[in-house]
Amino acid sequence: MKKYIVGLKRNLVLFTLHIAYSNFYIVHLKMHKAFLNFYNAYLNMQDAHLNLHIAHSNFYIVHLKMHKAFLNFYNGYLNMQDAHLNLHIAHSNFYIVHLKMHKAFLNFYNGYLNMQDAHLNLHIAHLKMHKALSNI
């Protein structure tokens, strides 16, 4: 009977060790996932940052076109209709660029929030790893 109890205790210890190792491995994989999410958020933020620069460059080009249109408008009465049309086109382009800048900012902010989420997941995975290690 004593051998049977010793065998049961040994099996219980091995099973507990197996569970602890499994929990550690799960937490380890979750940490990898959290890191990949963090890196993905970082890349999204870089992409949004680049889009912000592109939108700013487009804004400056449109700004110069608006100045040109304004000068053409005052260049003479005969050119007034042409300049007025250019002004409307420049305004439409300005509005499009304005919306793209808003979109780029929202993408940037979304990347920032994803990074914060991944950072939190990293902390959670770290705590779970410590919990799994303490169960060994």
Task: Give an account of the 3D structure.
This protein has two helices and no strands. The protein has 136 residues and is mainly α. Helix 1 runs antiparallel to helix 2 (80-134). It is rod-shaped, with a radius of gyration of 31 Å. It starts with a helix and ends with a helix. The relative contact order is 0.17.
Write the layout of secondary structure elements.
Layout: H1 2-73, H2 80-134
Helix pairs in contact: 1-2
Summarize the structure.
The chain is an all-alpha fold.
Task: Using brief descriptors, characterize the structure shown.
2 helices, mainly alpha, 0% strand, 136 residues
- Principal-axes geometry comes out as rod-shaped
Task: Report the strand count.
Answer: 0
Q: CA-to-CA gap between the ends? A: 28 Å
- Sheet-strand content, in percent, reads under 5%
Average pLDDT number? 91
User: Which ranges are low-confidence, i.e. pLDDT below 50, for 5 or more consecutive residues?
Assistant: none
Reported for the largest beta sheet, the result is: none
State the order of secondary-structure elements, H for helix, E for strand.
HH
Assembly form of the protein:
single chain
Number of helices, where a helix is a run of at least 4 consecutive DSSP H or I residues? 2
Overall structural class, as computed from helix and strand content, comes to mainly alpha
Helix content: over 70%
As a whole number of angstroms, the C-alpha radius of gyration is 31 Å
